[in-house]
Amino acid sequence: MTHDHSHHATEGVSDTRLLWSFVINQLLTVAQVVAGFLSGSVALLSDAAHNFNDANALLIAYIARRVSRKDADHRYTFGYRRAELIGALINLTTLGVIGLSLVYQAVMRFFEPVEIIGWLMAAAAGLAIVVDLGTALLLWSMSRGSLNVRAAFVHNLVDALGSVAVLLAAGLIIWLDWNWIDPVLTLVIAGYVLWQAFKMMPQAVRILMEGTPPDLDLDQLAEQVERISGVEAIHHLHVWQLDEEHRALEAHVVTPDGADAQWTQTKQQIKDLLQEEFDIHHSTLEHEPQTPIDEDCENAGLITPH
Question: Disulfide: which of 148, 158, 233, 242 matches 88 by Cβ 3.0-4.6 Å?
Fold first, then answer.
């Protein structure tokens, strides 16, 4: 297994980028709302609503990023790294709500069509494209090492694509008088928004629920540990992620009778294996002499079968 060290590239990136992106996107939202009401375009209003959510996502990303850097203390002994994941989950949840709202607005527009001012819709979409792409460029380097910032980055990419679609739709309305394209486009934007939200949310939920990393095979890990000389079995095996980049493991290691003197060496060999092969740098190993495994542990599902 390989480890992605790209998060180190984000260490020196100024958080000021997030704040500037937040301010710019809030100003864009105001402009889109005004243009949406004046032009009568629900697609433009939908893009504005999505952009408003993006701006809030950037603010949440900034706050969560700052909190996550706090050192561990007596209340949070693992530190505050998961603050970014909480921020990501909030962003993705609101993104899903926005998507459902867009679907409702588009369906209602089919039943209550209105006249649309195409040139105003096109002007607002063009401005949005410039702002969305500029924001995405500001966030790109930061997004590679943080699910939280990556969620905000994806928000802006989706917005840029949506703005391009709105611009094309404005052209069809101006030249062909296709007003029906407005709610159709809104449904397309909503579908993409929902797909992105539900695609990224499981990763954040898995980490917050302390699930096993998806690329890690517990049976394979146990088998490799048990190949080490002086290890009879491993059970009570738990592996989880502290955040996107840090994994932790705890387990009970059973050694043969008379191997107690070599335990320190055996434990170091296990830790080296976990670091090199499974990218687990924080491990807690409890030593057990060879005894029958407690049936209560087996019934509780705490023993890894292999």
Answer: 148
